[in-house]
Amino acid sequence: MTLLIILGVVFLGVMLMVVLGEKFGKPMEPEQQAKYSKLVRYLVFALIIIAIIKGLAG
Questions:
Q1: Using CA atoms, how far apart are residues 58 and 55, in angstroms rounded to an integer?
Q2: What are phi and psi of 26, to 5 degrees?
Q3: Span 29-52, mean pLDDT?
Q4: Where are the domains of the chain?
Q5: 3-state secondary structure 2-21
Q6: Nearest partner of 14 among 38, 41, 22, judged by Cα
Q7: What does the alpha-carbon distance between residue 23 and residue 28 come to, in Å, rounded to a whole number?
Q8: How high is the pLDDT of residue 58?
Q9: Backbone angles phi, psi at 7, to 5 degrees
Q10: What is the pLDDT of residue 18?
Q11: Which site from 2, 6, 17, 36 is most exposed, i.e. has the minimal number of CB atoms within 10 Å?
């Protein structure tokens, strides 16, 4: 039952973000989008490396 409550709250939160993002959000400029894309790529790579190191150590 707790899991269903958590999933419901997460679903409502995501739905709220989507609705508010569509209503008040503005499109990104291509330069800004490219900058964030590059940053996210490095962050995901770092998180994967950290997860591998934690998995080997623990």
A1: 5
A2: -120, 150
A3: 96
A4: 2-57
A5: HHHHHHHHHHHHHHHHHHHH
A6: 22
A7: 15
A8: 72
A9: -65, -40
A10: 95
A11: 2
Compute the average pLDDT of residues 12-25: 94
* Identity at 6, one-letter amino acid code: I
In angstroms, the CA 37 to CA 15 distance is: 24
Is a pLDDT exceeding 90 seen at residue 40? yes
C-alpha angle 46-42-17 in degrees, rounded to nearest 5: 100
Q: Tokens 């409502």, residue?
A: 12
SS3 content of the chain, % helix, strand, coil (to 5): 90, 0, 10
Reading the block at residue 37, the tokens are: 């894309």
Say which residue the tokens 């998995």 belong to: 55
The size of the chain, in residues, is: 58
* Residue 21 neighbours by CB distance under 10 Å: 10
Angstrom distance (rounded) from CA 2 to CA 32: 40
pLDDT for the residue numbered 20: 94
